[in-house]
Amino acid sequence: MSHPTHEPAGPPGLDRGAIEALAEARHGDPFAVLGPGPSLEPGRRRLVVIRPDADEVGAVAQQDGRPLGVLARVHPAGIFAGTIEDAPYRLVVTTGQGTETVEDPYRFGPILTDEDLRLIRAGHHPDLPGVLGARVTEVDGVTGTVFAVWAPNADRVSVTGDFNGWDGRRHPMRLRHAAGVWELFLPGIGPGRAYRYEIRTRGGTVLHKADPMAQATEMPPGTASIVPDPTPFPWTDGSWMARRATTDLLKMPVSVYEVHAASWFRDAAHPQLDWDGLADRLIPYVRALGFTHVELLPVMEHPFGGSWGYQPLGLFAPSARFGRPRGFARFVDRCHAAGIGVILDWVPAHFPMDPHGLFRFDGTALYEHEDPREGIHRDWNTAIYNHGRDEVTGFLIASALYWLEHYHVDALRVDAVASMLYRDYSREPGDWVPNIHGGRENLETVAFLRRMNQVIEARVPGAMTIAEESTAWPGVTAPVAAGGSETALGFTLKWNMGWMHDSLKYMGEDPINRRWHHGTMTFSLVYAWSERYVLPLSHDEVVHGKGSLLGRMPGDDWQKRANLRAYLAFMWGHPGRKLIFAGGELGNPREWDHDGSTPWELLDDPGHQGIQALVADLNRLYAREPALHTRDDDPGGFQWVVGDDAANSVFAWIRRTGEEAIDPATPSSGMLVVANLTPVPREAYRIGVPAPGIWHEVLNTDATAYGGSGLGNGGRALAVETPAHGRPASLTLTLPPLATLMLRQGR
After folding, report:
1. Spatial contact of 211 and 170, defined as CB atoms under 8 Å apart
2. Which of 242, 245, 444, 487 could form a disulfide with 387 if both were Cys (CB 3.0 to 4.6 A apart)?
3. DSSP 3-state assignment of 745?
4. Cβ atoms within 10 A of the Cβ of 102, count?
5. Residue 595 bears catalytic tag
């Protein structure tokens, strides 16, 4: 159909400049022009519609479909205007594909309430995903999707998608000035539709952005957001969630298997598992090895797989690499059914600067700092969140709550906390901005983390937050309470990076030299109760040229495996929760490759089978024996027996449940841990104990079942009333080479 060169001017009162602005997608207040306008004569109303794909546009009555009027094309870009009978209406649109009757998005009033806007601006909205992003809902009896996005400095924002040809002219949004939020209800748009926001900046640049609040995304490298399915997930973990809310997790065993979901298992038939495939394989494996939790490297949507998820842009969307969001919910539900908790790595420190993401979202530094000395991370070339802006901290806290509440996740491990706490982190003099007191502490981040942990504690009882924090910041796990320290952050647990660095350094020494580094292994007990700790042997320790855990151990193949077995048992006997990255339990001799797979073929070798069997037995012993976990944060739960035998590289200590003396009638009341970290067997080594009697050797890393030589104490030893190490009784033990023993007193 040909269009006239000169279009009609349209009904009286229609501003030609406004029509041109709409046609050029630069009008900042589309509701002032589009949709039903003022009454121009009794019983009739102006109507303006933009449909670039249309040949004809008219209106019919909602109730009975009778014609109300036909609109004239008033601009070649597809703007139609005219007067219609003043009655509830629907549009009749004829295109080259036929004629359809549709709702007019511009006949609907504002969606967000004034209270919503106030809370968004204050950063305190209790349900941010319920008001921002894309929500399938019903408005005035019409089903569709409400889109809402924070972009206070934009000149114009439109919703584009597979439903409007990605044309920014079609659906410009209404600006709610009180919060800088743009909103639009699109009737007839349902779950699964792809969309973006087209943003015109004040400088006239047009940006195409994914939704920061998207709950689903298309598969990378695609960048569109997806309208989420609003159907509630049929959770079956009610008993798990009820127990979680009332359990004292600080008294429970926490043994974590850390996993990069994309590379945990791959073969020719499975280049990458989806959530259901991962559940089928990972959950039984984690349960068989006795881990209490599985921790996933970030699964929030991220553009670059090589970042392992640590540069996310979709803080509310499970990555489409593994399927749809409901698949992730099924994974969590199945973990809980198997008695396994789920921890997610979460990144509120920084984000990548991909053009479709958060960086200069509306043409200004919205989520990040404007000053590159505050807003750009030099190490990772990423943008740093502005934790001093209420809307940003509200966005981040909403993300944390979303994973814990919507997906029933049990804990968030917060990445790179040290980089957030210090303004001069990894910066040269002159390349950072001091705080208001002239110091290096990031006071805005401290306030954000304190509030985040307070909100989570109040809203999600039993959920944990775990800080990856590598400095001596005081009070990372101290409670945030009235009258408490201003540095207290309120995390549940903190990674003990000092223990990890020191112990790996010691284990990397040739045993003949370990006597000179003895204090490196004991130093962690000086500060072991200053925070509530996790002992991490994470993915970071097996990449970037560091070598694998097994590869760091000195000696020939047998000695490497013996060293690793002794080290793992040392770790499981040491105060603090346990974490090991996938492959460590196999004695992987190679560094982790995120494009590869865990080397399952190692299990064809009995030596590697033995390491795996040891980890399983350590987990079972750790969970079964209260002495190994109930007083992790209490110095009264630990007593050195031998901490100064540097010449022989022997360490011995007792883990206690709380009794003043180990009770022979209570076998689980205490555990003696002895490590000989040289390849020399120690015969008749005397160790002081609290009372005489039989001691059962419940674990020996030199056992043949683990690939060891089989040297030990025949499963038991007798303590006699011969004082040693300041105790009234003592054991005479055979200490196998490069081995750790655990002994429990009993009848």
Report:
1. no
2. 444
3. strand
4. 12
5. no
Q: Six-digit token pair at 20?
A: 């041109």
Query: Known catalytic residue: 374?
Result: no
Supply the CATH number for residue 119's domain: 2.60.40.10
Provide the residue range defining the domain that includes 131.
Answer: 114-227
- Read off the CATH number of the domain in which 737 is found: 2.60.40.1180
Q: Among all chains, which residue has been given the structure tokens 């995120």?
A: 594
| Structural contact between residues 444 and 369, judged by C-beta atoms closer than 8 angstroms | no
Helix-, strand-, coil-residue percentages of the chain, each rounded to 5: 25, 30, 45
pTM over 0.90: yes
Question: Which among 155, 211, 345, 468 is annotated as catalytic?
Answer: 468
Question: At residue 630, what is the residue type?
Answer: T
Phi/psi class of residue 359: alpha, beta or left (left: φ > 0; alpha: ψ in -120 to 50)?
beta
Tens-digit pLDDT profile for residues 640-697: 999 999 999 999 999 998 754 444 444 446 899 999 999 999 999 999 999 899 999 9
Number of domains in the chain: 4
* 327-363: pLDDT as tens digits: 999 999 999 999 999 999 999 999 999 999 999 999 9
Q: Which of 227, 260, 284 is the last residue of a domain?
A: 227
Q: Which of 301, 415, 469, 585 is catalytic?
A: 415
Whether cis (ω within 30° of 0) applies to the bond prior to 221 is yes
Q: What angle (nearest 5°) sits at the alpha carbon of residue 258, between those of residues 456 and 401?
A: 15
Distances in whole angstroms, Cα of residue 329 to Cα of each of 113, 323, 406: 30, 11, 9
DSSP state, 705?
G
Q: Which amino acid is at 709?
A: S
Q: Which residues contact 605 (CB under 8 A, 6 or more apart)?
A: none
The residue behind tokens 């490069």 is 738
Q: Residues 452, 396: contact at Cβ < 8 Å?
A: yes
Of residues 122, 44, 115, the one with CA closest to residue 85? 44
For residues 221 and 356, give the distance between their C-alpha atoms in angstroms, rounded to a whole number.
11
Residues 680 and 737: beta-carbon distance below 8 Å:
yes
